[in-house]
Give the backbone structure.
Amino acid sequence: MIAARLRGLPALSPRAWLVLVAALGLAAAVALFALRAGPPGSVAFEELRLPGADTPVAIAAARDGTIWFTLDSSTALGRLRNGQLEKVPKGVESLEPLGLAVDAEGRAWYTEAPTQAIARASPDGKIDTFALATPIAQLGRLSVGPDGAVWFAEPSVMSVTRLKDGRFTRHVVGTLTARVDADAAPFGVAIAPDGAVWVTLPSANKLLRFVPGGEATAFDVPTRRSGLGDIAVAADGTVYFLELAANKIGRVTGGRVQEFAVPTPVAGLTALAVAPDGAAWFTELRGHRLGRLRDGTITEFELPRPYARPFGIAVAGDGKVWYADLSGWIGRLELRGAP
């Protein structure tokens, strides 16, 4: 394992992040404590330092409050349940563990690139694996739709793929509309409440929306070579996406694409999640911050540690924001008494 502390990283393409994550591993000891707290209306952080060389990457929240997270170069998933940190053995060492989502039954779905598979961990620890019929697999983000179907970006075959009832259905993005080139590889994927699939296409600098078996629409991003990354959809259908190279948060409402500049220069935008109130939360790996876009305004929250490297983010049903820090921490942000 290569140990690396991320200092002064330049803005990287989404594909470069895939390579970067696979080379991480930092030692740490266990301690759970409140690092910053205050009166109502203040920001409160709590952080858990993981043991050994555990490096959390992606993170997701279940309806029952359980927090799942992937671990780089590990044969286990991480889980925080009822205040207890646990490891769920999965038998395969992780590589580029970017895809993670929890379904309505509390099962964690995740990408397993080393074995060309999508896997599922049940709350009781049972692991089910669904093998892809490809000799290699490069896998991006993963999302669970309203109908329980699992969708994931499969850049190695230029497809967004659906897994339902053990069956894979591929949608090659270059065949869905003439406005998308054949070599456009997807990275981020999110499912809207109406079942429409939204995808980021970094090399094409476009967003793609399609309905399986129906219409597909491509949206140009105003900033050229923006470095498209993660994408998420709010309950009202508003779409948010990251522009890593441009250092912007994008938003699509009513078919109109808007961009919002992040105040911290070259912040290193890596992950995105939408809160129950419709706000979009995102990580700033290089800026050592979390950010929030709400009502067209970006607010940044500096993490307690000066060398924090937040990479993954999720918002639980109670509105608390969880993040995975590559330097070996799981954290939670709570806005106490704030609207």
In short: The chain has a mean pLDDT of 89. DSSP finds one helix and 29 strands in the chain. Residues 14-21 form the longest helix (8 residues).
